[in-house]
Amino acid sequence: MILTVLLLIGLLPGPGVTASKENLALGAKAVQSSTYDFLGDAANAVDGNSNTNYLKKSCSHTHSDNNPWLRVELPDVYNVTSVTIVNRKDCCGDRINGAQIRIGNSLDNKGNDNKLVAVIGPMGSEVIKTYKFKATEGRFVNIFLPGQRKILTLCEVKVYADEIFDPKSFYLHDKEDLDNIALRGTATQSSLHSSEISAGFGLPLNAIDGNRNSDLMKGSCMRTQQETSPWWRLSLPRRYVISSVALTNRGDCCSEHVDGAEIRIGDSLENEGKDNPLCTIVSSIPAGQTEHYNCTDLLEGSYVTVVLPGEERTLSLCEVEVFGLPVARCGFLV
């Protein structure tokens, strides 16, 4: 009986957090950075009408602003787990590209400094898209479009809380829309295997050459010495919001050389980047296969480090692919 009570308590929301599985945005207060005309009121984005034709008066619309935004003010504080965006279809669907979804309880910078939970990539022919993420506490849900002379139009915003979070589906539907930014970076690693120094095999740049060939002797894999906590690090040319990382394992042998590896993302080079925030831990990858990993939180940074904790370990990877978008602040890339 005591165990049952404890389990039920564990399912309850935290103090001050309201539970709900309805569309929390429906009829909520909505405000935006500016209003283009009488057809584009912010309230249109939370009216329950998903009509995608702006002239039907069911979409919000800002002026051409620097960093336009729309904020939905929920009636209480919730553990928000997904946001659905309905884009405009009659024209201008690409205007939403790069918009950020931010959630929290602060109104600093109009709420646009709250926690980043998703970045809206190109929607293509899709009009409706749902972004799922780990439960994030907040009352304010902002759609923030960084950049100069941008227009933000939203035909509906739906907000849901307390859903079951499945990391396997987190942003997986978006990776096809994003470039492999690892190809723009440089790479280094903790050591080079002694047998490969003269042959040119096992080099750190082999893991970002765009070639997934899984045979080390074909010259497209990196490999370290056997050592304590070997690592490989990607340095990007600027800061990015990173949604997923793909690793290709060796297929010729030694597939266990990646078991237990940690993917870390951030801006620090302390301890060779091994102390940056953890994206995920790799349990194992089948020989010669590529696995995509989606961080449980969107992480920002210019360094992606793969570290293999433990003594007498060898790290070997045949390709590292990283998917994300540049971080923007005040309309400028940083």
From TrEMBL:
Keyword match Protease: no
GO molecular function, one term: metal ion binding
SUPFAM superfamilies per record: Galactose-binding domain-like (SSF49785)
Calcium recorded as keyword: yes
Top-rank taxon: Eukaryota
Gene Ontology biological process: regulation of cellular defense response; regulation of complement activation, lectin pathway
Cross-referenced SMART domains: FTP
Entry keywords, A to Z: Calcium, Disulfide bond, Lectin, Metal-binding, Signal
Signal peptide positions on this chain: 1-19
All copies of domain Fucolectin tachylectin-4 pentraxin-1, residue ranges: 21-168, 178-328
InterPro entries linked to this entry: BG_Antigen-Binding_Lectin, FTP1, Galactose-bd-like_sf
Protein family: Belongs to the fucolectin family.
Function: Acts as a defensive agent. Recognizes blood group fucosylated oligosaccharides including A, B, H and Lewis B-type antigens. Does not recognize Lewis A antigen and has low affinity for monovalent haptens.
Subunit structure comment from the entry: Homotrimer.
Protein name as it appears in the record: Fucolectin tachylectin-4 pentraxin-1 domain-containing protein
Organism from which the protein derives: Astyanax mexicanus
Upper taxonomic lineage: Eukaryota, Metazoa, Chordata, Craniata, Vertebrata
